[in-house]
Every structure is written in structure tokens, then in C-alpha cells.
Design a protein that fits this description.
Shape of chain A: globular
Strand order of the largest sheet of chain A: 2-9-8-7-6-3-4-5
Structural class of chain A: alpha/beta
Oligomer: homodimer
CATH superfamily of the largest domain in chain A: Type I PLP-dependent aspartate aminotransferase-like (Major domain)
Order of helices and strands of chain A: HEHHEHEHEEHEHEHEEHHHEEHEEEH
Largest sheet of chain A: 8 strands, mixed
CATH topology of the largest domain in chain A: Aspartate Aminotransferase, domain 2
Largest interface: A-B, 91 and 91 residues
Number of domains of chain A: 2
Radius of gyration of chain A: 22 Å
Helix content of chain A: 40-55%
Number of helices of chain A: 13
Distance between the termini of chain A: 43 Å
CATH class of the largest domain in chain A: Alpha Beta
CATH architecture of the largest domain in chain A: 3-Layer(aba) Sandwich
Chain lengths: ~425, ~425
């Protein structure tokens, strides 16, 4: 869109101030250009949708349109259909959260929930606390409302709750508008907040009276280890954001929010202003799809598939990656986070990786302030195990080339200092 | 949501300032309560979706999922699928606008287009110019960005371009961020901007260098009279907002924007932040639906249906409504606008109308400042002709009751002055 030709912007001076903070994505343009047929992508967090049987979707869609009749095609209620909110109630019960349908509002994917929460809570200059690194889509959503985003470092056990408390103390009486956290298989770091830290986080949030937004797209995609109760199961005041994108299909754009009713009331006003209501057509399809039992088998198979890909990636990292690299070991979800020595700029190296037929997302996309350039997010969700091994091998080649200089320095005893911005695991 | 029980809002003091300007809808609550089975609704602008054959939608959905394969269920591009943008290009060509697919971005209904345009253009305190009265959803979308909304009065020929020029002159060098207009069968007034005024509006906007946003949900629903070229056909810099809601189905939540590329670039950033991308599932269904020819017959039948309902409403108004009422005579679309003497408060009368089994939207919903309480919008799109006649008869009874006092005053020569806020037609 406009990248291929020079265009004069007649209204260059007329845009809102908030647009100055919304980042264009140079990485996105690079990926758009990365069209060679054997390209191996570790960049997109796209589910392996080919495992969802088209027959199941066709029969859900057909039954939905026939049964729901004109309701499927008409404007719907802003909070979403009762039927799909009942599906959410059942899904939430299975992970330990007891709610009623009127505690739920259906959204256009989890992304709309993040956008509208930011819209109802954030004035310019307000403080938001999140993990560092954090989900880049959340940073994009928040940035339009011009907050000051504070990243509390995470380690292999998730957000450092000791540092969270210190940060809230430092912020003083003005405090933060909310804490945004992804407790399960975090995007991008892959780490999971431990049960003990979940309780600590809630105690700290309560002590400082700060709302907590729990974003949980991957919670049902656990490969090993015991289920951790969502924050919302431990505290009714937590605002929970869920999505059908990873347990059914992103193409329907269906997510949800669970929140205290006063929050939902304001959220609904923002939702009406944003799109009047969600798609009844998508909602009736989801109602039908989750009305049966086949989705459970599909989800199990998906989870096994992702687990196999995670294994392939961790094995290949072990085999091919240079000794200077550290990475996380996710128990579920889509992502591994790799940290390289501080002087390596993985944003500038990306173009070379693309030339070698492999993509990743440089780490600075997951910070609001340019940090993380020595890190990268590797998505193992979308490539087959063989492709994952080959992609990691290609990537290792590119990194090795760049590391030669580094090693020469090290041999001469003049090693540049490495920063430890995240919870990388020593190999 | 929270209307039925008193709830303590722990975070009452934490919401963003912009939420103070987003109006809750008392009318909406009233309609929610209006559940008696013989209720006749003139309030919602809902298309008569039962005329869209379910078979056509089922076969479009089935073919779409089978042919598009996983693409229908996966994340898509933020601008929307090439296929559905090609459909938009063809639809626009049929109304006289020549564009290419990369001039189009697909949105979640026209409402999302209005929300995101406001998001990229409006800082708090900026001026927006629209017709008075104007679409209440646009007022809701804009209000979250805290503009100063100026209403230029409309008459039976649409926005008064002489008053538009005067308003821009009055605003001086700071000017307006954009002019928002609904040229065809305007919501709520039902009036259409004449070709001469279209050119005048564009000349004035150009002279004052103000972007024009043309909202055209009803353009294809013309009952009589010649087609008027869209503003976008006359000026490539116009930002055009369209929707599939009235020519196919609102339940898919599909609309579009046509705009100069620099605007689209910023719009896309805002769209990514708002929901990442639209629903590929809905888009492939629309591609299929408009790939055939049956939609033309369906749209013709829909238009004939609406024309018959418009006739029924105008006839019934003539027969039943009191002589003090004035109303517009739409050549297409969904709405008639009724103006009553200034002292009649149609907002307070609504509860009584609901008791009598008929609903409408009081006129103040279509102004940002409380004006229009002596007016109402009557939607003729959704009720059958017999119901329309009965509904107008019921409504006339309610109005007659209230007008008795007025007539007594008039007989005594002490008539309160009537205001002429809009283009009401003398009966």
C-alpha cells in the first residue's frame, strides 16, 4: 500500500498526534518481499489451520445458517450472541474459571479486546505495566492511546514480581492504569508465570489497586507440566482476554473478554463505537463447531503437532546454534525466545537471513523503546519439523558468520559486554 | 449488562477522559425492554435480511471454505483479500467510480471505517463538520476522540452548502479536520444531496483544503429518480466509505474504504492495532456471493420491498399524522425524518409510544448537542406495509394526545414558536 510508488500526501499535516506513536513495521515490508518458494518462516504466529477439518467447518457453517436463519446474517447484539457466550462459559470452566454468560463480551479476536481496553482506560501519558519483552500487537494497540509503557523484566518463571512491586513503588501515587500480562507460554518469550508468582502478582496489584489484564491465547496449548490456574480463577477482578484463534480458527476473528460488569459496560460503549457489533455469521459457526465434540480431538492433534515442532526446534537449536546463544524452553504455545550477545543487531541481520531463506522477528518489536535488538522470536507453530531443522541450520550459518568477529575479540580478551535483558536459559 | 443490578465500580476513577463523551443510550435500554410480541419497530435500521436466500449464502459459504481452503480460516492481510477488494472495484465501477484493488481496504462494516478515520485524524478539540442531523453511529465513533462536532443544517436537497462555506469561514485558519457527509438518502433525514450541491461541496472543501468523508451505505437502494454520481466519482481525494450490510448482509460485518494511498497507509496501521485483520471467512463468503449473478435479483427485490414500505409509510403519515407534523420524502434508503412543533419532546414521549406498541428514535440521538428533541427518525425498512400502517396509526394517537394542549394554545392565539431545524417537507 503506497510502498511501491512515491505519493504526495495532501493532508500530511492533518493527522492526529496519536499516529506519531503508532509504529510502521519495516519488518512487515521485508516479509512481504520474502516470497521465495522455499522460504522457512519462524516469524508469524499462525496456527496450523490445515489440521482443522474443512468438513467440520462446512457442516458447522451450513447448520448454523440453516438453523439460526436470518439471525446469522443480521446485526447482532454488541455483547455477542448468548450461544457463543455460553461456549465461552464452558471453555472457561474447563480451565478453572466460573463465570456466567453476562460476564462475557465477544470481540473481533483478542486484538480488539486489547484495543478497546486501552481505549477505555488510557489517557495520554498514563502508565501501563507489561512484561519485557511483550506481545507486539498489544504495544501497537496501546500506543495509539499514547501511554508510557513500562516493561518489567521476565525470567524463565515469567514476570519478575519483585521488580513489579519495585516499579509500582517507584511510580508513586499516580500509579499505573493497568498491568498487562500473558501468563501462559508468553508471546514472545515462551515462558510461563509460576503459580506462586501468580499469587504474588495479584497481591501486589491489589495492594496498589491496579487492574490486571490477563491475555491468554495459548493456555489450552500445553505440551507438558501441570495446568496453572488463570489469574481470573484466583481473583474475580482480573480482566481476562481469550480467543478462538488458536483453538479453532483466526479467520473467524472471534475473541472474548471476561471482566467486572462496570468495566464491561464501558467496554460495550467502546465496542459499539468501533464496529456496532461482532459478526453473527462467525458466531453461529463457532457455536455449532463447539457444540459438537470433534473440536476436542482436533485441538489435541494440534497440540501434539505443536509439541513435535517445539521439540524439533529445541533439538535443532542445540545442534546448530552457536555457544553464545541462549534460549527459552516453552512448555506450550508457539514461541521460543533467543538471546544473542549484546553487540549482535538481529534487526540488521534479518535481511541476510531472508536471503538465506529463513525469517524471524527481531526482538526490538517486543519492546516499546528499541531494546531487544540482540534477541529474536522464533515461532515453531507453522513449519514442519524437517523445515524447522533446516531453517535453524540456515539461521545458525548467518549467525556464525557474524559471530566470527566476536570470537576474535574474545580470543584477544576484548569481549564486548553482553546484556541479560530476558530470561534466557543457559544451554 | 449491569443495568439490572447495582454494582460497585472499584475502578470508577481510572477510566480514560474520552469515555466521559461517549454517550450511553437510554433509548437502547428502552428498546431492550420493548419485547411485547406485537411491537412495531420504526427504530432500527435493519435490512430485511429474510429476502436474502439462505441457500445462496450456504452455497457461497460452502464453496468458499472448500475452494479457499485454509485461507478462509487463517489470519489474512490487513487490507483484506484481493478477491473481495476486486468485488468492491466492480461495485464502485457500477456507480461511476473507477478505482483499483489497492485503493481499497476492507473493514468490519462501515462503522469500523468511521472509527478508524476518526482515530487517524482527530485530536481532542479538533473540529468535524457533518450534517445536522447526522448518523448517530458516526457521532458515537467520533466522540471517543473528543472533537468539536459542528452540524451544518440540511434541507430537502441535503447539506446546505451555503451554510457550509459560512461555517468554514467562521472557523478561520484552524479549520476543520474533515467534512463527514451522507449524500444519498441520508441517515436519519432521508434526503439526497443534489448534483449541483455535490459540486459546490467539493469546491468549498477544496478551497478550504478540508478532507471529505463520503458515507454511502444506501446508494444502491434507489426507488426512483436518476442516479447521482458519488462525490468520489467527482474528486479522487474524497474518502469513500461503503458497506456490504445493505446489499448483502450485516452479519458478515464487511465494509470498505476507498482513499488516497497516504490516508490508507495510516488507516492500515490503525486497523492492525484495532483487530490485526478482518475476517477471511466472511470475505471469502462475500467473494463467492458476488461472484454469481443471483445477488442482483436479490438486491432488486430488496429495493422493491423497501420502496413498497416507504410508500406505505408516506401514505399512512398523510392519512394519520396531525397537521402540525412535517416529514421528508426519501427517494431511497431506510428512513423518514419527522419534525413536530418545537415544544413537543419526542424523547419523553417515546415511553408512551412503546406502551402503545410502536418504537422510533428521538431526533436528539442524531445531534451532538441535545437538539432535535422535537424530531424523530422513522425506519420503514424492517416492518411489513400492514404493520407500518398500524404503527403509524398508533404513533399518531400518541402524538394527537400530546397535541391537544398545543391546539388549545393555538386557538387562544398563544402558539409557542416552532423551530425549523431540518429539511422537513410541508405536507
Amino acid at each position: 500500500m503506497g510502498t511501491a510508488r512515491i505519493v504526495f500526501d495532501r493532508w500530511a499535516g492533518r493527522y492526529a498526534g496519536r499516529m506519531a506513536d503508532v509504529r510502521s513495521s519495516a519488518v512487515r515490508d521485508l516479509f512481504a518481499a520474502a516470497t521465495r518458494p522455499d522460504m522457512i518462516s519462524f516469524s508469524g504466529g499462525m496456527p496450523e489451520i490445515s489440521r482443522v477439518p474443512a468438513d467440520d467447518v462446512v457442516s458447522a457453517a451450513t447448520a448454523a445458517i440453516r438453523d439460526a436463519g436470518t439471525e446469522a446474517l443480521q446485526y447482532g447484539s454488541s455483547e455477542g450472541r448468548e450461544g457463543v457466550r455460553r461456549v465461552v462459559v464452558e471453555l472457561m470452566a474447563e480451565v478453572g474459571v466460573r463465570i456466567k454468560p453476562d460476564d462475557v463480551v465477544i470481540t473481533a479476536g483478542a486484538q480488539q479486546a486489547l484495543d478497546l481496553l486501552a481505549k477505555i482506560f488510557l489517557d495520554p501519558g498514563d502508565t501501563v505495566i507489561c512484561e519485557g519483552p511483550t506481545y507486539l500487537g498489544a504495544l501497537q494497540a496501546f500506543s495509539a492511546y499514547q501511554p508510557d509503557v513500562v516493561c518489567v523484566p521476565a525470567d524463565e518463571h515469567g514476570m519478575r514480581t519483585d521488580l513489579l512491586a519495585a516499579e509500582l513503588e517507584r511510580l508513586g501515587p499516580r500509579g499505573a492504569k493497568f498491568i498487562y500480562t500473558i501468563p501462559n507460554f508468553q508471546n514472545p518469550a515462551g515462558v510461563t508465570l509460576t503459580p506462586a508468582r501468580r499469587r504474588e502478582l495479584l497481591e501486589i496489584a491489589s495492594a496498589y489497586d491496579v487492574p490486571v489484564i490477563e491475555d491468554d491465547p495459548y493456555g489450552r496449548l500445553r505440551f507438558e507440566g501441570g495446568h496453572c490456574l488463570p489469574l481470573r480463577a484466583l481473583d474475580d477482578d482480573v480482566i481476562y482476554v481469550g480467543t478462538f484463534s488458536k483453538i479453532f480458527a483466526p479467520g473467524l476473528r472471534l475473541g472474548w473478554i471476561v471482566a467486572p460488569h462496570p468495566v464491561l459496560g464501558r467496554f460495550l460503549l467502546a465496542k459499539q463505537a468501533a464496529d456496532l457489533c461482532g459478526s453473527a455469521y462467525a458466531q453461529v459457526t463457532a457455536e455449532r463447531y463447539f457444540g459438537g465434540t470433534r473440536w476436542r480431538r482436533t485441538l489435541q492433534e494440534l497440540t501434539r503437532t505443536y509439541a513435535g515442532r517445539r521439540d524439533a526446534m529445541l533439538d535443532a537449536l542445540e545442534e546448530h546454534f552457536p555457544p553464545e546463544a541462549k534460549w527459552t524452553a516453552p512448555e506450550g504455545g508457539f514461541f521460543v525466545w533467543v538471546e544473542m550477545p549484546a553487540f549482535l543487531d538481529l534487526k540488521s541481520i534479518l535481511a541476510e537471513a531472508v536471503e538465506h531463506g529463513v525469517t524471524y522477528v527481531p526482538g526490538d518489536a517486543f519492546y516499546p523503546d528499541g531494546r531487544g535488538r540482540n534477541c529474536m522470536r522464533l515461532a515453531f507453530c507453522f513449519a514442519e519439523p524437517d523445515a524447522i531443522r533446516e531453517g535453524i541450520r540456515r539461521l545458525a550459518e548467518v549467525l556464525d558468520d557474524r559471530l566470527e568477529l566476536y570470537r576474535a575479540f574474545a580470543a584477544a580478551g576484548a569481549l564486548p559486554g553482553a546484556s541479560d535483558t530476558t530470561g534466557g536459559r543457559d544451554r
